[in-house]
Amino acid sequence: MKPHCQTCTCFTRSTGKRSANTHIHGHAQLIAEHTGDWKSEVIRQAADLAVGRGKLRMSDKGRPLPEPKWTPGEAGAVIEALHDIAGLLDVRLKEYDYA
Question: 3-class SS at 64?
Answer without folding.
Answer: strand
